[in-house]
Each structure stands twice: as structure tokens, then as C-alpha cells.
């Protein structure tokens, strides 16, 4: 474990950089706590003393020239400290700037400097000062491309030393806006809001001057000014600025349309206020403000935004994802606000674009970027160890209804209009059975019974199953248009698994599952789909463990021989596979053959399993990263696959299969590859972004070339859970 010291302001001090540092460090430790230990060197001054917490190991009094040399010596002498991360804002170190620069020069550990502000067109003195910082640091982090361009253009910086890592945002489990308005006594109001530590630079008066024109068109408008007065402002001039604002509110007769929330809100409450906001207003009057944490927090909560043209806003609100207005131009602001409030479709569009843009900036993804930089800057290359998230069934339970589990979602909100499928419900049955059987996560048995009932409902008189059911429980025409073999196979698989762990449930449930399963026997000779055969094999393997019989063995023989024949017909020297192409959920095929071997002991099945699995591994693993077959054209024999369009179902299937192969062959490489494959969900993928959402317990629907599909449907979420559960020891 590598120890890093972060020099920064830190809570309980109230300032933007303190909050940033806390969020960043929590995110890194949450994701890579086995790789890095991060402690704080808290920045204080003679007027702002630091209250130390357990995170704080050192304190730097920036007004004391000797404190810099003392800290330098302490860090250099501490062999445990491998790197120093400095959060930089010019005002923090202005009292003893030369001492600060000398500290950077004399530190013997690699230093990464995070520039929170980058000033264009520097004076000669500023140019020299920044130049010394850049010369002594191993790497510079900036939060926007604009800041990088300023460093390159105006400071002649070395581009190889600059890393752009955006300001982080919080993942949000979205709640109903009307219910939030009810809770905060804002029912029936059109809500405009802004937040942050109050200071004249926020230019709140710009909004107040715009409000009369907004209220005239939208009489229900209320403007929320969220946040305490900045402690630095409070010490110098008290509540002068807030008093000026209150006087202007009275002057303009806006008392019924403005509400001060004079608190430093806890994060969950702040995020709720932002979610109930109809339009967020960012009115900073500082053209040199490089980034704004308040701005990106609002964007990540789905707020349509009207903002002044600071570089960060210009960068993020391009492509009509927001509205830009001129500094202090109240007329433009009122026009923009009225335009947005009148156009719900436009607000929705901005919300979706904003959420897509900020997905990559979730603190979890920012943590991945910083960890990769630490790895690069470290003098000894060490593999990153991803922390496993706790098992969470919340989103699956939220997606479940009386019939089964809803097929799709919009974001993390279930879309009941899409109905249900046997595919998803069968997977959910297996996942929830395993949760109950292992005592992991929070789940009620009733969900298991709901899923079992759905499978019974889908079974037809001839033993087969229909797959598609609408929101009212009616079978849809899709059942006549789409092949159903694979969904039938998954149903058998789920039933077999349920029976294998039925001891955790009431006895009649097991009897019901057996009756459903036995009605499928008459259809074995009609099944031709390799995956359907494989799922059925897996189901009967589980069933045979609980209910061994000659009849069950005969079913396994029949199915395994079918799959073996398919393999022998297709496999060649350079293509050891069951088909002339690789499509989806490929790992189930060799896994099923291996389970057939375990069930009846035939060595041929074991050989086919290992041979085909090794072939598959070579196709989807590159180093320590998995890249499963794209759903945009698949991978045909003799042709290369499209590089993007990866789905959680494929990764999960590989994670599960790797466990099975390790249990049989005891080859440690399978365990290593299983961890690598699972880490795809945690950010070890070509986008270096999380696919599992820890805020909701859901899993995003896919990994595209340049973005994540942010919907969190049943298939992806349940598959993730099954993969996570497979990492548990038996």
C-alpha cells in the first residue's frame, strides 16, 4: 500500500477546495483502499486554524515561513510517504509564496499539483511563479481542456506533464421531483436555484434584477439562494452582502419569490434540492473562474442550466446542453429563464445531455483517473486493486412488481410501460435465490415467489414458455416474431438452480418448481439453439445435485451430446468454437460442457469445455482487461470484431464461467482472470469508467465507444449481481 500526503484545506473548514479534497479522497479510498493510503496535511493560517480530524496527519500554517521548511523535512524523512498531492489556489499560499515554492523544490517525493485556477495572460511575476511550480512538480492536474490550453499557450508548459481530470460529481439515485417539492413545501412552485458559499462574486443581484420579468411570465416562480456566507467574507465584512440582497428583494417586491436557505447543507439534502430545481442559475461574475463545483453538481442532478461564460461553462454547455448569457446581463437571464420554463421538452433534452456528459465525471471515475496517475508517477509499478462494492439488491427490488421484474428503465427509474420478460425474471430468480442462500444483501422471500410465479405463468400446455408479457400481464405479439429457445433455456436453468437451494424456502415452492421443470422434458428433441441447450444443461446439473436420478442423467446425456456434436461439426484448428461466429453470452457454452462432465463424468465433455474456453479467453482478454464481443456485428470466423458495444450480460457470464473452471481445474490464472473480468464493471475497461452504479445498486446497460448507456435495466443489473455473487467463496 502506497501512502500519499494531500496538502489542502480540509473540513470542518468550509470552502470549495476543502469539500473537493474530501470528496476526492473518499472516492479514491473507496475504490482503491487496498492500493493507497491518503492522509491530510491541513492548510491553515493565523486567522483560520484547523480543527484536526483522524484524517489529518500534518498541519501547514501558511502564514508562518518556518512551517514550510518543517513540513518539507517531515515529509522527506518519512519513508512511508511515497507521493505528495497539492491542492493549489493562489490565495492559499500568497502570504509566503517564496517559502511555498521552495518547499515544492526541496521535496524529495514526487509532487502532483492540482491547479484549481489557471489565469490567462499572466504578469511577468505570475509567469515566473507558475513556471517554478511546473518545473519542480512531476505532474500538473487541471480540470478543463481550456486550462490546459492556457498553460501550453501562456506559460509554455510541457504538455507531457499536464493531465486533465475533470471536477468530480456525485452519482444520484433520482427521486420524483413533485414528491421532493411536496416534502420541502414547494408544491406548485417553479423552482430556480443557486448554491454555494455566498460572496459578491456570485453576483446574485443579477438574478434578482431579472426576477420581475420572470415572475411576470411565471407567477409561481421561487428563487432559492442556498448556502451560508463565505467564512472569509464573514470575517472581513460580516453579512453586508446578504443584507444588500435582502434590501434589493424588498425594493423589487420579491419577498414571495425569493427564499434564503442560510445553511451549509449536508450532501444528501443538497442533492435533493437540486433534483427539485426546474432551472439552475450560475451567475458568477469572475471570468477567470476555471471551474465550479456547484455548477457540475447541478448538472449531475439533471438541472437545465443558465450560466455566465466562464471557461468551464463554455466547455460543458456546448452542443445546446445549456444556455450561456453575458456577465451581469439580467435581461438576457430573464429571457433565457422564461424560454426554458416554457419549454418542457427542451428542459428534458438538456437534462439528458447533461447527465450523459457528467457520467464520466462521477467521483468514482475521477478516482480511477487519479489512481492511474499515481500509478504512472510511482517509481515502482504496482497493480491497482479495485475494492469490491457491497452486495446491493435495492434497484432489483425497485424494478420488481406483482408480475415479475420490469424489462427496462429510463436512467434508474423503472419504465413499467416496457413490460416483463421471462429472460430477465429467470435471471432474477437465480440471483435472489443466491442472495437468500448466502445470507448476502437485503431481500425478502416474496420476490423469489413472484419470479417463480411468473415462470409458471409463462409456461404453455406443451411445456414451452413464452417470453414477453406487457405491463398488464398479457402476452405480446413479440412472442410470435422472436425466437424463444434461449429464454426457454434460461427458464430451465433458473428452475434447476432454485430446486438446488430450495431448502431455504417453503417445501411447496420446490414441488411447484419441479412440476414446471418436468413439463419441459417433452421438448428436448426440438431444441437446436446452442445457448438454449447450454442453459438447460446448467439447469439440469443443478437439479441433479438436489434430485439425482437416471431420468435427469439421461436428460444431461441427451443435451450434452447435442452440444458436443455441434462443436465437432464446426470446430477447426484455428477456430475452436461451437458456431462460425461469437455472439452474446458465449461463456455459457464451454461452462455447460464442463458441468455436463461433472454430472456424468465423460472426459470428452471436459476436453471440449477447456479447449473452447481457452479459445474464447484469447478472443476477449487483452492483458488484464476483458473486452467482450461487440453487439454491433458480432465476431465472425476469419474477420475482426467491432471494437465497441459491450454488454454486462457477456461480462457477467465470463465471470461466472471462470469461477466454474477454477473449481474444476484449480488453475490460479482463472481466479486472476475472474477478478480482471469483474473489474470491467468497476472501471477496468476502455473508457476507464464505472459500469456499476453504487448510488442506485443498478448497472448501466452497455459500454459504447465513447460513452456509457446510462439506463439501468433488468438484464444488466441482475447480471451484475450474479457476477458479484460469484466472487463469494462457496
From TrEMBL:
Ranges of residues in domain Glycosyl transferase family: 188-351
For this UniProt record, the keywords arranged alphabetically read as follows:
Transferase
- InterPro entries registered for this protein in UniProt: 6-hairpin_glycosidase_sf, Glyco_trans_1, Terpenoid_cyclase/PrenylTrfase
SUPFAM superfamilies, A to Z: Six-hairpin glycosidases, Terpenoid cyclases/Protein prenyltransferases, UDP-Glycosyltransferase/glycogen phosphorylase
**Sample GO molecular function, one term:** glycosyltransferase activity
Record GO biological process: carbohydrate metabolic process
| Pfam families documented for this protein | Glycos_transf_1
Q: Which Gene3D superfamilies match?
A: 1.50.10.20, Glycogen Phosphorylase B
The name on file for this protein is: Glycosyltransferase involved in cell wall bisynthesis
